[in-house]
Each structure stands twice: as C-alpha cells, then as structure tokens.
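From the methods appendix. Each design record in this collection lists the tokenized structure first, followed by the designed amino acid sequence. Records were kept in a plain field format so they could be parsed without special tools. The example shown here is representative of the layout used throughout.

RECORD:
FOLD TOKENS (282 positions):
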C-alpha cells in the first residue's frame, strides 16, 4: 500500500543533500574572526564587539589588535558584549611569551595563524615550525588549553615529494597539534576543502569560512594576486557540502573571516552571517 510515509520518503530521496539545512550539533554557534574588522576594533574594541553580537554572531576569535588590554580586562569586555571567545590568534614570533596571557584570557584554543615569511620557502623552515609546534602543543596541553595551526596557501608549495603542509602533518604530534582549516586558502591553493577535511579527519577542530570570487588561478605565494575575497554565499565555494563534511567531523568552532571588504564592514559580515544561518540554523 502506498502510504503518505512512503511518499515522504520518496520525495526526500529525490532532493539533493544541499536542499536540507546542515546541522553539526544541537547548537551551532557562528563566530567571527576579529581580523575581519581590525580597523573598527582598533578604534573602538568594545563597540565593535557589541556590533558583532548585534548581527547575531555568538563567538569571536581574538587577534593581536585586542591584546593591548590586560587579559582580565579584555575578558570582561568580551563577556559584556554578549560574545564568547573560545580561540585566539597569536603571532609565531610572540607566541612563546603569550601562554600565560592566553590562559588568563580564558581561551580554549591558542592558534598560530602564520609562519614567518623566511620559513615559507624551504622544507627546513617547515621542519623548524613542526618542532616548535610540538613544544607549544605540549605547553598548551599542560595549561589546560589546546594548540592549532591556521593555514594559508603558501604551505602547499612542494619541496620534492612533499608540501610544506605535508611536513607539518608528518612531524607534529596529532594529539598535541590540531588544525584550523581555512577553506578559502585551501581553494586558492588549488585544492578541495572537502577532500582536505576527509583526509585530515578530526585533527581539524575549527573552520575558517570565507568565500572566493570565481575565475582566478590558484597560487601558493600569498601575494596580492591571491586576494579574491567576497561575502560568504556570493562566491564559488560549496558551503552546504563543506559544512556537511564538517558536521561528520564534529568541528567545534566556525569563524567567518574576510581579509578585504569593499563595502560597509558590518553589512558585509551581516550578509555572511545571514547566508550561513539559512543553510545552518541555530
């Protein structure tokens, strides 16, 4: 007998996966990487955080523009804005001195956002970084935090049979060194974010969400010619399927980021947030 239940099953099967909202867990907080609004934050950090929250964002990933304040004061400013700050970016050259600050700030994640440029062009530069990452990973663990590395496109330059990223993966302890995957820069390097997520598995604990204008060549140089940023949902990156892959890995935090904004900054981050909420409801 052809029942209503059968009809609904057949109807659902006929629809593509992206037709359904993607859910990673019961509650899906969308965060913003503070570097997206660096100029605003530099002039009025408290007001900027409040505006981020008013858009709908629930989390913020902190950056050095905020670290002019003592940790306890910054922690209060974030809390007063209504946001949570589970993660912070700390520059490679300063990171060894920042662990006590990060601990006092209350972040769960200490993230290195980039290697010094002098280390981009040799396998030895990446091996040096891997050794340092293991040390930082252990230190973060001992303080009750975790350590992660955020990629760009330069890590995917080849040195013989391996890329710089391959070297980092091979020579770091997966129990101590985790990954924050930037989907834009993976795409800019000519790779597939979904394939990369499937390859890396649960070492990826955070995702950077920013979109890329179509029609530009891939690169591995982090030059101005690599900058094709646009609001999430207006570019070429397949977010419904990426987020479905992230759901399977139980990614913990998702941060919108846009390195360059052409129009009003708040309207830009609002557009990205509204798109994500349509495909990934709270």
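DESIGN:
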């Amino acid at each position: 007998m052809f029942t209503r239940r059968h009809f609904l099953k057949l109807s659902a099967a006929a629809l593509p996966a992206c037709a359904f909202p993607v859910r990673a867990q019961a509650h899906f907080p969308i965060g913003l990487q503070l570097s997206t609004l660096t100029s605003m934050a530099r002039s009025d950090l408290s007001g900027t955080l409040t505006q981020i929250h008013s858009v709908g964002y629930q989390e913020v990933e902190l950056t050095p523009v905020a670290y002019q304040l003592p940790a306890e004061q910054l922690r209060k400013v974030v809390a007063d804005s209504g946001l949570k700050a589970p993660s912070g970016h700390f520059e490679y050259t300063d990171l060894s001195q920042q662990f006590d600050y990060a601990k006092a700030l209350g972040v769960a994640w200490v993230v290195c956002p980039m290697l010094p440029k002098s280390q981009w062009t040799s396998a030895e530069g990446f091996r040096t970084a891997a050794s340092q990452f293991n040390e930082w990973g252990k230190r973060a663990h001992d303080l009750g935090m975790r350590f992660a590395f955020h990629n760009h496109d330069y890590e995917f330059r080849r040195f013989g049979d391996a890329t710089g990223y391959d070297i980092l993966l091979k020579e770091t302890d997966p129990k101590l060194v985790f990954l924050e995957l930037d989907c834009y820069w993976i795409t800019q390097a000519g790779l597939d974010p979904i394939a990369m997520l499937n390859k890396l598995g649960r070492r990826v604990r955070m995702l950077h969400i920013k979109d890329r204008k179509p029609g530009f060549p891939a690169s591995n140089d982090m030059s101005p010619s690599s900058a094709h940023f646009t609001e999430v949902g207006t570019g070429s990156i397949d977010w419904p399927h990426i987020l479905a892959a992230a759901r399977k890995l139980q990614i913990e935090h998702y941060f919108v980021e846009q390195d360059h904004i052409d129009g009003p900054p708040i309207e830009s981050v609002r557009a990205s947030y509204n798109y994500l909420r349509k495909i990934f409801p709270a």
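APPENDIX NOTE: The chain is about 40% helix and 15% strand.
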